[in-house]
Amino acid sequence: MTNFVMKAVEQVKPPSRMLVDSMDINECIKVKIIDWKDNSRSHYYNGIVMSKSIASKRMNTTIVNPRILLLRALDQDEGRNPNFIIPDLATKIDVEGHTDKILEQKLDKINPSLVIIQKDISVKLMNMMREKKITVVCNLEDRKMKRLSRLT
C-alpha cells in the first residue's frame, strides 16, 4: 500500500488556483477497496477510471492513443432557454438536418477516434459516426465531463 501512496504523492499535482480549486490532494485521489486476502489485485492508475458503455455494440471498444472530442450538448436552444418553444415538426427536422451536416463537416476536420457527449444523440448521427469508425459515449454526468475536460 505504501507504494501506491508514494506514486500518488509523486504524480498527483493539485489543481490550478486559476480555476479556484482546493489545494487538498484528497479531492484528486479516489481509493477503491477490494476485499481480497492480499494486495495482489491492487493497481495504481494515473488518470481517470470510470465505467461507461459505448453508444453501439458495433463500435470499437479498444482504442490505442485516442483522439478525444468532448461535446456538451448538441441541441443548444432547448438546454439553455427554459421558455424555448418547439417550432413545428418540419422546422425542427430541417434544423436538425442542418446541424447534423455542420457536425459531420467538423468531425471530418478534427478526425477524432472517440467522441464523448454529455447528452443523448440521434440514431442518424450515431450511425454516421460508426461508419467513420468513431466510438461514441453519451449521457455522461456533468461532474465526470468536467473531470475529463481537465485531463484532455
Largest sheet: 3 strands, parallel
Beta-sheet strand percentage?
Answer: 5-15%
- What is the count of β-strands? 3
Strand order of the largest sheet: 1-2-3
Straight-line N-to-C gap: 28 Å
In N-to-C order, the SSE pattern is HEHHEHEH
Estimated structural class: mainly alpha
Low-confidence stretches: none
Shape: elongated
What level of helicity do the residues show?
A: 25-40%
Oligomer: single chain
Radius of gyration of CA atoms, rounded to a whole number: 20 Å
pLDDT averaged over residues: 79
Helix segment tally: 5
How would you describe this protein?
With 152 residues, this protein is mainly alpha-helical. Strand 2 (114-117), helix 4 and strand 3 form a beta-alpha-beta unit. The radius of gyration is 20 Å and the shape is elongated. It has a 3-stranded parallel β-sheet with strand order 1-2-3, sandwiched between helices. It has helices at 2-11, 76-80, 89-110, 123-131, 142-151, and strands at residues 68-71, 114-117, 135-137. The model has no long low-confidence stretch (mean pLDDT 79). The longest helix has 22 residues, at 89-110.
